[in-house]
Design a protein that fits this description.
By secondary structure, the protein is an alpha/beta fold. The protein has seven helices and twelve strands. Helix 2 packs across helix 3 (81-94) and helix 5 (182-191) packs across helix 6. It binds NADP nicotinamide-adenine-dinucleotide phosphate (NAP).
Length: 252
């Protein structure tokens, strides 16, 4: 089993850690799959990396069969719903064991002013209730949903520049890659005179700083709901449980 590949769908820090831990544990062919959306992605210190889409469910199923993949771990971002559904369908088609690593979402603490939005479109419609200067901490893919908010000013933070044709007219872009510290985030919100934040509920520590900073400053946070996931998935929420699943599958 250890000689056949383990494929990890990535895009998260945990995916990189899983690759490294599996290689350390002696698994010889551990592959991280990245979407290719980021030109200079953070890479694991071990294992192999492949980049780019597979071509839908069938393309992924073909890859799994052709490469004789033994186990599939979906450690993609909690909002990367498409690849998660493709993984689920491809695993069913090929009969391959699949585990979904699902990073737990943040939960609301006393003092948080969270407003739930079902989509970016709904979040954009809500903004008039929450001030003029908006921090869009959502990456760059869904920026277009805010293009019609012409009377608001946006601070956009993403690793790479958003498409200027779809970005809201009044915006300033800053390039940055987490982790982000709460004190630095509070300083940024103050300096930019931010009235409200829009964010995904990504979970984890790396990007929690903005949530703590908004609480400290009493700012509203428009929180985009997580997308639905395949209902009957086998899931884990920790790296250790994921490694235990691999060991269990490998010994079977
Ligand atoms: N994907 C990520 O690594 C990532 C990381 C951080 C945040 N997010 C957030 O998730 C949301 C959706 O992003 P998205 O469009 O990238 O995801 P998505 O909607 O789930 O995926 C779109 C397509 O990208 C390809 N893809 C995605 N992840 C892949 C992976 N790990 N390996 C190989 N191909 C992959 C697949 O193409 P094929 O159908 O051709 O196989 C997939 O159908 C956004 O809000 C984004 O900010 C995503």
């Amino acid at each position: 089993m250890a000689a056949r590949p383990i494929l990890i769908l990535g895009g998260t820090g945990e995916a990189r850690t899983l690759v490294e831990r599996l290689v350390q544990s002696g698994y010889r062919d551990v592959r991280l799959s990245l979407s290719g959306a980021t030109r200079t992605p953070a890479l694991p210190g071990a294992g192999k990396v492949r980049t780019g889409g597979f071509g839908g469910t069938q393309g992924l199923a073909d890859y799994l069969t052709r490469e004789r993949v033994a186990l599939l771990i979906d450690a993609s971002h909690p909002y990367a719903a498409q690849i998660t559904f493709h993984a689920h369908a491809a695993a069913q088609q090929t009969g391959l064991p699949l585990l979904r690593f699902n990073r737990p979402p943040w939960s609301k603490q006393a003092g948080d002013r969270w407003i739930a939005a079902a989509s970016h479109q709904q979040a954009a419609q809500m903004l008039p209730g929450y001030g003029m200067r908006v921090f869009l901490a959502i990456g760059r893919k869904e920026i277009g949903a805010y293009a019609n908010c012409r009377d608001r000013s946006f601070l956009i933070r993403s690793i790479e520049q958003p498409d200027p044709d779809t970005a809201p007219a009044r915006h300033r872009w800053i390039s940055a890659r987490g982790p982000f510290d709460a004190a630095d985030e509070a300083a940024l919100l103050r300096k930019e005179r931010i009235d409200c934040l829009v964010t995904k509920n990504s979970g984890g520590n790396a990007t929690y700083g903005k949530i703590a900073a908004a609480r400290l400053l009493g700012l509203p946070v428009v929180m985009i709901d997580r997308p639905p996931a395949p209902p009957d998935s086998t899931t884990s929420t920790t790296i250790d449980d994921t490694l235990a699943w691999v060991r269990q599958q490998s010994s079977g």
